[in-house]
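[Automated response] Your request has been received and processed.

Submitted sequence:
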Amino acid sequence: MPSALVLCAADPASDPRPNRMIRCLARDFAVNVISRGALDLSGVTCERIPAAPRRPPLARVANLLRLSAGHYRHLVWVPGLRELAARHRSRHDFIAVHDLRLLPVALAIRGRRGRVFFDAREYYARHYEDLLWWRLTYQRFNRDLCRRYLRRADLVATVSPGLAAEYKREFGTECEVMPSLPAPLDLVPQPVAPDRVRLVHHGLASPSRRLEGMILTMDHLPERFTLDLILVPADPGYLEKLRRLCATRPRVRLLPPLPFAQLVAATNAYDVGVFLVPPVSFNLRFALPNKFFEFVQARLMIAIGPSVDMARYVREHDLGVVAADFQPASLAAALAPLTAADVARFKANAHRAAAVLNSRQTDAQIRAHALGAGRPSAA
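Generated structure:
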């Protein structure tokens, strides 16, 4: 049986994209995983990336100064990772890597055997460009890694056409577009009540996403609209800010996170998946996130701001409404006139789209590349 290796800096038990990659590869390969967590799946062997030692404040400042000066091997080759990589060198037919800083590790492991697939989920050279501290420290690190290693991978994929075009423009790297499509579920759209429209948003509570805009949208909508936010904590101070905004609005609820495997089925009870995220960074301008396709799979109508690549899908499949801009009042203006029949029609369109926009599409892409792993490496 051929062998595959998946590297990711997160926990694949809770990170949807590497989770789906591992499950897809496990059909044809003996799969090894090197990550921050473990996945309990038959035929899959997991090893943990060694935890970085806790450093005193002065050492952390020194590391940031080294980073801003372009010295970053200590961030790639954390203690213990070199030994772990050596045990896997030249053992695998196919290597999938999900994080930029692990790409040099994957290329070192490849040796004379196998092919490296880099899943560039973000545009790493401008990952958190809205944050000054990131631009002063990690931006040079990410850009240098892209410049040095992207074209040494046999295949690079990213989530949206906008990101793929920028990888080509800045680094000369051809990227295959591979959206974050969830597994298909046998669901049907739920009926829409004549006097109630239930909006839902789920995801990371990150300040960069300006989630308060969706809460403020409710100030401009009729009483029949409600909003539930199912958020994963990222910044305690920001989450508390959102909690205060919700507390003064009886039609808005802040709910605890759900395991991602339960999200689609749980949100099937709602009517509209909403995502109003201003383009404060390049990645957010061309965002095409997991949740967009999870809304489709949950058979929900979709309401968004004019995010370029999401809007393309909404219009192509007639899934819902695209606001004129990213202001809360504009999203409300797009939603307020909708009747129950309008919402039901969009949900029916999502039901049809769900048969196409699911992981069967990306699984076919992954398997086509992985099962060609015996071909000579491009590097």
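Summary generated for your ticket: The first helix runs from residue 16 to 25. The domain at 197-354 is CATH 3.40.50.2000 (Rossmann fold).
If you did not submit this request, please reply to this message.
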